[in-house]
Amino acid sequence: MKAIDNAVGSLRETFRPDQVWPFLAPENNKVNVDKNIILYVEGLNLSFDGFKALNNLNLYVNDGELRCLIGANGAGKTTLMDVITGKTQCDAGTVYFGQTQNLLSKDEAQIAQLGIGRKFQKPTVFEEQTVFDNLELSLKTDKRVLPTLFSRLTPTQIDRIDEVLKIIGLAQQRFMLAGALSHGQKQWLEIGMLLASDPRLLLIDEPVAGMTPQETERTAELLTSLAGERTVIVVEHDMEFVRSIARTVTVLHQGSVLAEGTMDQIQNNKDVIEVYLGESEDGTATGEEV
Amino acid sequence: MSRLSQYFSAGRTSGKHTMPFVVILLALTAFACLSNLLLPADSVFHVSTYSITLLGKYLCYAMLALAVDIIWGYCGILSLGHGAFFALGGYAMGMYLMRQIGDRGVYGNPNLPDFMIFLGWKQLPWFWHGMDHFWLAMIMVVLVPGLLAFVFGWLAFRSRVTGVYLSIMTQALTYALMLAFFRNEMGFGGNNGLTDFKDILGFDLQSDHTRVALFAITGVILALLFVICQKILSSRFGKVILAIRDAEARSRFIGYRTDHYKVWLFVFSAVIAGIAGALYVPQVGIINPGEFSPINSIEMVIWVAVGGRGTLIGAIIGALLVNYAKTRFTAIMPDAWLFALGAMFVLVTLYLPKGLVGVYAQLMSKHSSKTPPTPPANTTASVKESNA
Asked: N or C end: fewer C-beta atoms under 10 angstroms in chain A?
């Protein structure tokens, strides 16, 4: 009897006159950052065949911050980005974008449309298309099938693409195929694609891998200039680079946060020294790479 | 304004061969039609009705190659089951033609096609009702392949099946349909299929005029579909399709629902294949389950590979050339054809990865590199900007 009552109750609830069914509700893409925190990651757990890639990970990122994530290989940096961008499902935990957007219930495309841009470790651009087309595809537009089919480039959009081309220094290569760019230029194009989509939060995986010192310097300038208006999370192995851009650094170790603070605090943190410099209690160096 | 138009033209140069190609295609079609109808049979330029029918068949194959190319060449989805959509479109047309026979069949029954009487059936199966209306048959030509492609694509692309697995599934799809259509109980004439057609919309299918008209209609529809495909693929939708082919994950992370794009392109492609099938059946006069056979679907892929995948013109040229070669070859050495086809595929894959169109483009670029290079578009753009 009770089961029937419950069923009737939930039916009644479903068909209540003022009920708005989720699929009929207008899609709400607003990001609420009243508390000045843009990303809440709480109690995240994920294991692959018994290997704990993420282990009760907690992370809060302020709006407009430039945050560096460092950690050894397998510390869970890329996995964390995969979970945030919807590529990987986690076992337990919550990820909120602003205060209201539950990222775990959305797929990659929806998360991207909310304003989370991601740069891969290996530069991924559309090699068979021009630099200009690459940026056109990344613009913040209606990305459903029919609107895309009938869309036209507006002058505002062209100006936006020009602006991005200037920022990433590829104005001369505008009509070159993206596949013909050098490695560093591809990295920049990918960052440019993120910029063109006008994101709130940028997740950047190893932006300076394979770059010359000059390019690295320019990348550092670019990322620092982006912070403030946007929130940037950078994963990087190059400690010089991290030192040059970071205000706050989070150290991941074995799937959870080991330490958080300014670069100086991190370098003097006992746990970090122990893990990275390998000075375990008996004094032998295990030589783990940073 | 000039700057704007420059951007439009610069980003979308792929369509510069479109108009000349359409003109050539339509001109040749018109020439063949007129020379058949107007010139005397002993003239050098006379095209026999047999040739007209053969050419019409080639054009249907070209349309089919177009369908395979937009899905394989542009989106990287290797479908080895497009013969299924082609045959379904053909069967829809065949059902209409079958109903037009009326009481002129062997058994003279005005209500039932011959094969149903042969099977001892007393009444028309439900799915044959209304197929004597041309408009309904035409809707079915588009709807049935489209719906099958939608359901199949929805299931496959949503669960992110790609590559070889998808190809095998499409192959299985067409094979399963072939086995089903071979059964008499399906109500589509079993292994004899549908044949012995008399007329279409009241015109005698055997007459020269009807054959020429069917050929001309096929040519015009091919040109039309070619232009539509070119338009769609040079829109931003087309760019997204290319993006999905080259880096699907990246397209997802910039906010495109790639599964939706793939499903709709697959449906569009299936509809083109269905239309090709519907135009094919009245010209060759028969549709049977053999059209579903996996070999056919693989042959289509070879046409596209030979012509040059990723270029619509290449697909059309490939289909025409390979089929012409097939007609010639099977007349001389019928047994050697499959070997020749296989050899052609291997050679093209090894030496002409971009097909015949790729060879042409290479020759053109060699030719133009001897002449002084034209200034790249971006420098002229910056000159214009500084002038403004």
From this structure: N
